[in-house]
Amino acid sequence: MSTLAHTRGEPQTLADGIGTVYGLALLGLASVAVSLLGTVVASFSERADINQFTLFNYADLLTDPNLVGVTLRTLAFGAGSVLVMLVFALPIAWLLTRTDFAWKAVTIAVLVAKLAIPGFITAMSYVWLFNPTSGLVNRLLGAGAIGSQPFFNIYSLGWMSLLQGVVLVPACVFLMLPAFRNLDGTLEEAAWVSGITRTRTIRRVVLPLLAPAVLGAAMFFFVVSLETFDIIALIGLPGGIKVLSVWIYDALHPAIGAPDYGFAGAVGMLLFAISAVAIAFYIRFVRRSERYAVIAGKGRAAAPQALGPWSMLALAFVALWALMAFVVPLVTLFWVAVVPYLQPPSWAAINTIRFTSFDFALTYIGGPLVNTLLVAAVAIVLALTWSASISWVVTRSNNRAGLWVDTIVFLSPAVPSLVAAVAFQYFGIAIYRWIPIYGTVWIIALAIGTRLVAFCTRTINAASWQIHRQLDEAAYVSGISRLRAFRYVFLPMVAPALFYSAVMVGLLSVRELTLPLLMDAGKAPVVSTLVYNLQSNGNHDVAAAVAIYMIVILLGLVLVASRLAGVGFASAPALRVRRRLADEPASGPELGLIAPARAATPLQ
Amino acid sequence: MFEFDHRLRALTLALVTAASLGCGAHAQSRGDLPEPVRALLEDAKKEGGAVIFGQSLNPTQIAQYSDAISAFYGFKIQLTMISGMHPVKASELVQAMKQGVPSGIDVFWTASEVAETLRKGNAFLTIDWAKAAGADPKLKWGEDGLRAHDGTLVMVAYNTQLVPAKDAPRSYFDLVNPAWKGRLAMPRTATPFTYISYYLGEDKTETLLRDLMEKVEPKILATFPDLRTRLISGEFAVEIGSEVFRDRLRGAPVEHAPIDPLIITPWGTYVMRDAQHPNVAKLWGYWLSTPSGQKALSDITGVSRADAEGTEFWKFAQGKKTVIVPEDFTRNIERLSQKYAKLMGITR
Fold this sequence. Notes:
The complex is a heterodimer.
Chain A: H1 19-43, E1 45-46, E2 49-53, H2 56-62, H3 67-98, H4 104-116, H5 119-130, H6 136-140, H7 157-182, H8 185-193, H9 198-227, H10 230-236, H11 244-252, H12 261-286, H13 311-338, H14 347-350, H15 356-395, H16 401-411, H17 417-430, H18 441-451, H19 453-465, H20 469-477, H21 482-493, H22 495-511, H23 514-519, H24 527-536, H25 540-565, H26 572-582
Antiparallel strand pairs in A: 1-2
Helix pairs in contact in A: 1-12, 1-15, 1-16, 1-17, 2-12, 3-7, 3-9, 4-7, 4-13, 4-25, 5-10, 5-13, 7-9, 7-10, 7-19, 7-22, 8-9, 9-12, 9-19, 11-12, 12-16, 13-25, 15-16, 15-18, 15-19, 15-22, 15-25, 16-19, 17-18, 19-22, 20-21, 24-25
Chain B: H1 6-22, H2 35-47, E1 49-53, H3 59-73, E2 78-82, H4 86-98, E3 107-111, H5 112-120, H6 129-133, E4 140-141, E5 145-151, E6 156-159, E7 184-187, H7 191-200, H8 202-216, E8 219-221, H9 224-232, E9 238-240, H10 245-249, E10 254-256, E11 262-271, H11 278-289, H12 291-301, H13 312-317, E12 322-324, H14 334-344
Helix pairs in contact in B: 1-3, 2-11, 3-12, 4-5, 7-8, 8-14, 11-12
């Protein structure tokens, strides 16, 4: 077959082995479809009986007089969270990839560590500070006794959006990092040389080129925030603030009888509809993806910009986020670990400090840690294999189905975790005769890996959009099959995105609670369910100590992984060697968010 | 009392053993056990253990249960104890068993309202606990269960740093105190009030709940652990819906309100129809019903039956009228539950 047949617009076949990639993408799509279909099927079911078809759930939902108010509040929460997230995430991603910011290593470490802190700790720490009756800040300001008026009241939509946005920053930064890193610095330099100011260059050159990544992140985390429940459970519920995920929670926690999967499914479909609007907007925007291609056949330089007098302001900005998102929860975590029962700091409490919880945590953590790492490893392999294949189909294959594939995957975060867990459990029951993974750790890993495919595809897509098709076409014209081009051109080009995705999948797998809690059959407890059980029993101190150990372990694993992979957080010596091999111009001291030596990788 | 390290685990085992001896139930030489229980022992030894779905426990507590039951019967029984969302798990197991998929669970240890779902789904092994496992016939709980411990969904607790003992509520209507406006916490379920209605009646309970919602404006929290922790931290002065036995023993500034009568909502032990370890499952049910099992339950997790002498709950129940909500009460309370949930604003 002529290699010219592989160029754009020509009919393509699977004879060149690319069927493997399509096959993997199809498998990933099928797994994603489990939770999507589960939601659809549930929405037509009578409560917990999936064998009974009914339209009542939709009638019940659509005729609810509070539907508009709850939906608008949900949208406001999502939009507010994303706005706060971007306010911090954009500048931080910029500082890490485009400047000589001196604190990159520490910032990356804080971003990673933040992901390891359980969500309830972040929410709880702010409740302690700002609740209207006993919040520390209110007490300091003279409020808090019975009958007094508070200065701050954390039980509000504004506070919820603020905290949710702050919590989402690390994931958003990791999603956008590859795209920021890939941006060709020569484009900016050309603008400056032409007399355009730096501010105007950012506005008119850089931000438009980063638009797919930024918009993808915004849309993705908007969808995620619609169903995330940590902040809502601890702050929204006591405050009587109703959003759609509260309706789902109430449906799945009936006082009497079986959970109402039917209504939960119907609300899930509404979340799909909202997400579909966001996705449609995103897809329309990135349809002309070649506009955003910044990596072509020639090598590119990425000289970091000197911050100069702005460096202290940059540090203060990052420190502000770190204080809100990391320091406050970490101090809370440490405090909880050293006091005998959950209590706000006080002089009396300080006298009760002891460190026995760390001993107990060490005796408990062994087995669950091994299971957790196993689950995370399997989830990483599944998520990356499927998402790399799906991203190729969506961004490189010219296959019209790619649009639908991307849409389906993009919708999956809108499925509430509870509903997804139940869907996978019922899936495990349905296939038990042929594949007996129900009740095992493997179905938990499958569910977690699947849930994170959408995040990975966002990250990899954003990086892939920046790679010009010239590189693929050059490979095909040279006689290289699409499968080999996938392996030796596409994968190396998106390696940083793969690495960050792997880091995110690993960290989020470790933190995931809902799926293992609902799917655990007792054979393979993981760290998150250990923390949950400890907390449920009032052993908050030991739970906090376990969480602290996990932060340290995860940080160490991420550092080791980065050195082994040679991308992401490569050491300075490795960076210098890579540059020599690739004959790239030196780009100054940096954390090492390097390109792999793909420009020098010979096409085989 | 509830934080043991390995050094104290042996001591605990010794204490539990001694307690069992004191109760006259340890090591139960074969002759002490009822005949139906003795008949289970050999097969139970081969089974070696069981999987119990019930309370949320930490690894030390699970080990303590295993040690205690092993000491009682005189051979090693390894328990796997898991938990999660009971209503969700119950529905899932009914579906699984309908399709011939093993539940993977031997004992479901839960409240009546959850057991009802499993009972309707034909998930339980029908057992005459007295005949099959030598249990006290008075502890029979519904058609398939054995009364395990008494639930505390309607207990009231207060923060002793915010509420002097003399001001602690003595009846549910004492909760309607404007001084506690915004300082009363409740769980996000109408179940406590549904059970209270068994004693007070539907209308009085509705009045109580309406007054609470309008005059006290309670905060409604997602989970029972959240309820306890926020009471302990002082954010709330009073809570209804959870006991605080374990937290008291850790030194937390909380106490149970001396509400009289004491309305209790028993949990049952139920053996699954497809139990892989049915003999150990029955031994578990029997052991839990004995004074030895009740003491272990109280020592390990702070709960027990209210009539189990010497336990923390028994001490609390002294001098109070005890009202036991019957097992079949939950079969007809969906209407009540919906009504109270609407008043609480936790349903549409």
